[in-house]
Amino acid sequence: MDKWLRNPNVVKVIALLLGILLWAVVQLDQKSPTESRFTTIKDRMIYDVQVQPIYDESKFEIVSIDPPSVLIRAEGRESALNKISTSNYEIVLDLTNARKGENRLPLIARNFPSGLDVTVIPSYATVVLDEKQEKEVPVQVNVIGTPAPGLVAGQPVVKPARVLVRLPSSHMEESLVVKAEINIDGAQAAVSKQVKLVVLDAEGKELDFAINPAVVDVEVPVTQPFKRMPLQLKIVGEPPSGFSVSSFQPSIDNVTVYGPQDLLNTLDFYEGPQVNLNGLTGDQNLTLDIPLRARVAQLDPARLEIAVKIVRSGQKMLENVPIMIIGQNNVYETTIANPESGTIDIEVEAAPSILEKLKPQDVLAIVDVSNLPPGSHTIPVTINLPQFVKKLSPDITAEVVISPKTEQR
Predict the structure, then answer these.
(1) pLDDT over threshold 80, residue 17
(2) I need a surface site. Which of 114, 147, 190, 345 has the fewest CB within 10 A?
């Protein structure tokens, strides 16, 4: 080996080979980046990528986007292409400066890995916007279920009773319903809940419109069965002679009665408290409790006020008041023998404002011939006067004759 290395020609050959090898290495190193760039660049097509609009949802409603999805062409090294993740990238349509109506805007590719050349096909989209407005709509409550046996649900109370619905201007004239739903199944007392509202169209389809407020307070009373009916007051006594009632004003005319349904079915009116006017010579403001009758659980309201106005009386003669016969037998004929006219005159006392309107036909003069045999009879005449009118005339009688009917041939 040493002998070879000492030979000048061998050394020259080895030097020449080393030089050629170094030259080759340099040339290969210079060419490798260019060759690598051409051999590793690839592209990838991503289909049906949804367009993501960015806009003020409280101000605008999107009517249409064309196209709603696009094609993406990504070009770059394979290592960069492999980093593409569907959970990261997006195609954005920025509507920040858009206006009501039609807008044509560029599509923007976001969140793709660096080093990629991304092309959106098509690169523009056309969007139609409608401006939103507010409409006040009443809240309707849908009560689901039934309360415990023997109880009934009352009228729901909702607060607030009206809400604002934000909707596109094109829907402003449509018939909308805002509903709150509450379940009272098996309830033994009033049910109070906060309920989320929904907007429905005329066909009952739910609409995705914003509601303010979106939640309301709903209360459904749960009570025994109830019935609203007239309140009957029993007036006893009267002011002394020379004084009369000119005005009698109770604060209520009707009352809600709570109790078993079978009891309510028998009631057409409710018997209220007794009002005693005996001896009154001046105005009175009365406050009276309404009594709970048998089996009645509750009354609403439970008391009433009565304003009674007392004035000096006036007097009036009602002439030719006809006498009415009741209780006649179909087999007999009954006639009034005395007074022959079949009428009477009655002197009455009342407040001047009442007397001014009082007429003879407002008074009933009655004789009752029930169970009387044929013949002549003297019978007291019962006088029925309007309320707060007093009779001054002494007791009156009438003579009646009862006889068999004459057969007609």
Answers:
(1) no
(2) 114
